[in-house]
Structure formats: C-alpha cells, structure tokens
Amino acid sequence: MTRTEEFQELRPLLFSIAYRILGSVSEAEDAVQEAWLRFEGAPAEPRSTKAYLSATVTRISIDVLRSARVRREHYVGPWFPEPLLTDPYEDPARAAELADSVSMAALLLLERLSPLERAVFVLREVFDFGYPEIASAVGRSEAACRQLVVRARRHMAAGRPRFDADREERQELASRFFDALREGDVAGLRDLLAADVSMVGDGGGKAPQLARAVMGADNVARLLASVLPRMARIDVSFEPHELNGQPGAVFRDRDGRVLHTLALDVLDGQIQAIRLVINPDKLAHLGPVADAWAISREFKRAPRG
Q1: What single string gives the DSSP state of each residue in 90-115?
Q2: Is Zinc among this UniProt entry's keywords (predicted)?
C-alpha cells in the first residue's frame, strides 16, 4: 500500500479527531491536509502509520485551538461549532461515544477544557486510544495524561449532555416539530418543547441574529410560528437533515443557497434547545451561502398573516 493509499484510508479518522478538538470543519480539514504534508515529507516510514498520523493531526489541532481560543474570546455573540452533516468515521464498537461526542451540546461542553485536556479526552474517551499512544501524541508522560483525563472527566461530568437513546423516537419527534413549523402551528410546537427550552443564534456579527436567547416554550413557539410563514413567502425553504448526530435542518433561499442551519437537542421526549448557525463563515462547507442581510431586508417587507 502506498503512502497516499494509507493516508486516504485513515482520513476519516483523522478528520473526526481534528473536528472534535477544534469544533470547526474548515480548520479540521486544514489540520488533516497539514498532517498529510508532514507524512508525505517524512524521510522514514513510521512504525505505525495510524499512530503517526493520529499524533500529527492531534498536535496540529492543539496548536490551532490555542490560537482559536483567543479569537473566540472576542467573538460577537454566542459561539457555536460549525455544523457537521455527516461524520466520516464509523466504528460500530464506539458508535454511542462517537454520536454523543459530535453533538453541538458536547462540543460546547468541550470548549470548557484546555486544548491539552480536550485533545487527551477526545483520544481516550471517544476513540479509545491507549495511554502510550496518547502520551506520544501530546508529548506528555502517561501519568500526566491520566491526570489530564481525570480532570477533563470531572469538568465534563456535571454538564455532560444526554440524548434520547431511541433514534427512531427522536427522529419522529423532530418530524412532528418540522410539520408544525411548516404549518405555523403554535400549539403543536409548544407541545414538543420543554418548558425551559432555549433558542439561540450564532451570527458572529456577520449576519442578522437574535438579539438574545429566546427562553420558554410559549415564547419560542410563538416566534417560530410567526417567522416561518413569512420566510416561506420570500421563498426560504428548509430540508430536515441530521446535524452533528442530532435532528436538524438546513434553510435555503430561493436559489438554493444556504441561509442557516437549525439543530435540535432532544431529551425525555421534548426539545430542550434549538441552535441556529447563521454566520456565513461557518456555512461555506455546505455549499454556496445566501446573503442573510438581503434576505432580512426582504423579510421585513414581507406581509404578515
């Protein structure tokens, strides 16, 4: 097998590691590409290509995350990860860990960890790497890595997200939600929302976004039911699509360009949170991006009722 073939075989794993560390599709893809360049230029064959590339992409991701965290401190409004339509890496033995770890809720929780804690936690808890491999990847002793994992687990434990285990029930609830959304059915929406549901948007100062989080089932239901019919009048449509392993949808303008995504957190038969990613910089990997400001102006002119 050539180096190119070995790399292509491992690419899904490398991307999945980088994305969970970085929370960014574009940065994860760049990290994987940089790992390839280093692998291609390495003078000697590594003893284990998987170990070498996993360690390389992890180190690159840690460095990128350190600089990214500074930028995120000055981010305008709430910061959400870039939406991921499909996780390219599959491992039936780790299916539950992989699904939970890629959710918006889990990635936001990982933001509380230091870059080193985050990397070690991802390698150990999500991908089940052994401590010798982790120690080599991050340049710390095995004992230090064990301590990092313990600290990371402690930080994650209190707020660790839980989701309905039954995928079919979750998707059925999401289907009812989107049906009610299309119909502008306030009562139907309210019935599906948790009493303390929150709806938050991430525009990053580069697109119209909610001035603040909308809280409570009644407020969220009324807002959604009033906004969607008017959006339909200006030919904004949406297609349900799994996002970050959870139910969601991609909204598009009349020309099919991506306007924003909407992701749902579902637990105990109710929707606990609704997160919108509107920042165009976080949508480019999904295809051509709509002009959200122009659509906002058109929306304001659209008739009510």
Answers
A1: --GGGHHHHHHHTSHHHHHHHTTS-H
A2: no
Digit-coded pLDDT (tens) for 204-227: 999 998 878 999 999 999 999 999
CB-based contact 83:244 (threshold 8 Å): yes
CA distances from 127 to 8, 224, 243, 270, 285 (A): 19, 38, 20, 30, 25
Please check the confidence at residue 123 and state whether its pLDDT lies above 90.
yes
The 10s digit of each residue's pLDDT in 158-191 is 766 665 557 788 899 999 999 999 999 999 999 9
Q: How many CB atoms lie within 10 A of CB 78?
A: 17
Q: For each of the domains in the chain, give its residue range(s) and CATH number, in order of start.
A: 3-159 (1.20.140.160), 167-301 (3.10.450.50)
Q: How far apart are the two ends of the chain, measured CA to CA in Å?
A: 63
Task: Kindly give, in sequence order, each residue whose CB lies less than 8 Å from that of residue 214, ignoring residues fewer than 6 positions away.
Answer: 198, 199, 200, 220, 223
- Residue 284 token pair: 């480019």
| Sequence-ordered strand ranges (E) for the chain | 193-202, 214-215, 237-240, 248-252, 258-267, 270-277
192-196's contacts with Cβ under 8 Å and 24+ in sequence apart are 192/270, 192/271, 193/217, 193/220, 193/221, 193/270, 193/271, 194/267, 194/268, 194/270, 194/271, 194/272, 196/272
pLDDT given for residue 209 in this prediction? 84
Tell me how far apart the alpha carbons of residues 95 and 24 are, in angstroms, rounded to a whole number: 21
Single-letter amino acid code for the residue at 24: S
